[in-house]
Amino acid sequence: MHFTFHQLQIFVEVVKQSSITKASEVLHLTQPAVSIQLKKLQEQFSIPLTEVVGRKLYVTPFGLEIAQEAQEILDKYDRINQKIDMYHGKLAGNLSIAVVSTGKYVMPYYLSGFVNAHPAIEFKMDVTNKLRVVEDLEQNKVDFALVSVLPEHLELETIPLLKNELFLVGGTQRLQQQKIAKKRIFEDGPLLFREYGSATRNAMEKFIKQQDLLVKKKIELTSNEALKQAVIAGLGYSIMPMIGIKNAVETGQISVIPFKGLPITTEWNLVCLKKKKLSPVAEAFIAYIHTEKEAINTTYFDWVN
Fold first, then answer.
1. Which pLDDT band holds residue 87 (cuts at 50, 70, 90)?
2. Over 70: is that where the pLDDT of 88 sits?
3. Whole-angstrom Cα distance, residue 231 to residue 249?
4. How far apart are CA 303 and CA 245, in angstroms?
5. Is residue 90 over pLDDT 90?
């Protein structure tokens, strides 16, 4: 066997992505370069690691076993580097955070100072909807999560970070042209919703039910950015967090529509499982947040209050 560390890295990423093209993008390599290294690795084994069926790449059961072993080798390599960094007095290790979609406008500001101060840290932030974030937290796949609505079935340590407010909004141009009555917005719409599992959608549906509002037409979009652009373009109306549309409101592309019972007010919380044994990196991050939270809010989010 004469496979290389680089080949193992490439193979593991191909398995994760189930695609040579996607793996090449993640690894910042050309597609031919990935294919060549994958072929060279395959030459070391008499049993296929992958197979192509109908132009789609599949990993064989044997390939999955090799990928698991390869991942353990890569993990051990990372741990060796972390131990070297720690020996030299550097804070080293992994830090992973799952963030609900709108949280991407929040979390980077609480991370940048910490990550920049400790370059030996391996950091990962996964941005997805609330349902996936809670699953990752529940299954102990991440150190922390950023949520605006706390999952009630989990015992959590929480650090409140920032107020979160959701407003009824519409594209300014559409509002000027239609001049629709506020009471008719929900009925005539159309109303733009995030996908199922989104905290924004849950808040919006709860408000509509509480106010006994009739909604005849719904349009679903699967990201906050797509929803914002749809509102700007005049596709319909929505209830959205101000944190994600502030710039569009300030530039006059989106208008806030005053409505009884709004805004919906929640709070961004950094959370972790109560029983989780935190790594030194995770403990250092918590200490950093407690120390720097107010300064970060004053610098970047003073407009919220």
1. low
2. no
3. 11
4. 13
5. no
Same fold, 90-162+267-304 and 164-266: yes
- Asked if 269 contacts 158 with a C-beta cutoff of 8 angstroms, the reply is yes
Instruction: Grade residue 73 by pLDDT with cuts at 50, 70 and 90.
Output: confident
Instruction: Classify domain 90-162+267-304 by CATH architecture.
Output: 3-Layer(aba) Sandwich (3.40)
d(CA 197, CA 199) in angstroms, rounded, equals 6
pLDDT reported for residue 219: 93
Written in H, E and C, the secondary structure of the chain is CCCCHHHHHHHHHHHHHCCHHHHHHHHCCCHHHHHHHHHHHHCCCCCCCEEEECCEEEECHHHHHHHHHHHHHHHHHHHHHHHHHHHCCCCCEEEEEEEEHHHHHCHHHHHHHHHHHCCCEEEEEEEECHHHHHHHHHCCCCCEEEECCCCCCCCEEEEEEEEEEEEEEEEHHHHHHHCCCHHHHHHHCCEEEECCCCHHHHHHHHHHHHCCCCCCCEEEECCHHHHHHHHHCCCCEEEEEHHHHHHHHHCCCEEECCCCCCCEEEEEEEEEECCCCCCHHHHHHHHHHHHHHHHHHHHHCHHHC
Which class does domain 5-86 fall in? mainly alpha
CB 44 within 8 A of CB 35: no
Q: At 68, list the tokens.
A: 């698991």
Domain boundaries, the chain: 5-86, 90-162+267-304, 164-266
Q: Which residues pair with 270 in a beta bridge?
A: 146, 159
Per-residue tokens: 280: 């030194």
For residues 144 and 165, give the distance between their C-alpha atoms in angstroms, rounded to a whole number.
22
Phi-psi region of 28 (alpha: psi -120 to 50; beta: other; left: phi over 0): left
Kindly indicate the confidence band of residue 227, based on its pLDDT and cuts at 50, 70 and 90.
very high
Residue type, 173: Q
CATH number of 164-266: 3.40.190.10
